[in-house]
Amino acid sequence: MQRESEWRTYCLVAVLSQCFLLTAYMMLCLFLLFSTMVGNSFQNGITAETSAKTAMEGDNVTLLCNYSSSSLTGGSLHWYRQYAGSRPEFLILILRNAGANKSEAQFTVKHDKEKTNVQLEIFPVKVADTALYYCALQPTVMGNLVTLYKNLTPSETIH
C-alpha cells in the first residue's frame, strides 16, 4: 500500500514538472513571437512601439509601427514575418492612399493616417505564430529567392 502511495506521489510530481516545463516553453516561444524589429528606423522614418510583446495562446495581440508622414509620400508600408532559421515572408501591404490588403484571416491591419501609425492585429494568437515581425517602408529589400539584400551601405553585411 505504501509503494502505491509513493508511486502516485511520483506520478503527480512528474506531471506537475511536465506542466511547468510546457508552460515555461510556451512563454519563451510567445516572448520570441512578439520581438518586433524595425531595421534602420531613423533612416527610414519608421519605428516600432515596443521591441517585444508576450501573450498566451488564444489572446489577441496588436503590433504598432509609427512612421513620419513625409516618409510615406508615394510609398507603402509592409508587414513581414520571419520564423527562426527562415527568410522573411510577406504578410500585408498597406498603400499610402488605400486600405490594407489582408493576406490571412488571422491578421487585420488598421492604418491611422492622422496618428501616422499602422497596427497589425493577430487573433487568436497561436504558438505557431512565434516569429519576428517586421514593418518596413517601400522600397524594403531586393534580391533573389536565396539571398535577400537590404539597401546596404558599403560597411553593412548580412549573414
Keywords:
159 residues; alpha+beta; Immunoglobulin-like; five-stranded mixed beta sheet; four-stranded antiparallel beta sheet; 11 strands; 33% strand; disordered C terminus; Ig-like domain-containing protein; Ig_V-set
Q: How are the strands of the biggest sheet laid out side by side? A: 1-9-4-5-6
Measured on Cα atoms, how large is the radius of gyration?
21 Å
At the third CATH level, what is the topology name?
Answer: Immunoglobulin-like
Name the shape in a single word. Answer: elongated
Domain Ig-like: 44-153
Keywords: Adaptive immunity, Immunity, Immunoglobulin domain, Membrane, Receptor, Signal, T cell receptor, Transmembrane, Transmembrane helix
Pfam family, one: V-set
Protein name: Ig-like domain-containing protein
Care to describe what's here?
This protein has one domain (29-150): Immunoglobulins (Immunoglobulin-like, Sandwich), CATH 2.60.40. It has helices at 2-33, 41-44, and strands spanning 35-37, 46-48, 61-67, 76-82, 89-95, 100-101, 107-112, 117-122, 132-137, 141-143, 148-150. The protein is elongated. It is an alpha+beta fold and 159 residues long. A five-stranded mixed β-sheet has the order 1-9-4-5-6. It has a four-stranded antiparallel β-sheet with strand order 2-3-8-7. Strands 10-11 form a two-stranded antiparallel ribbon. The model is unreliable at 11-16, 28-43 and 143-159 (pLDDT under 50). The protein has two helices and eleven strands, in the order αβαββββββββββ.
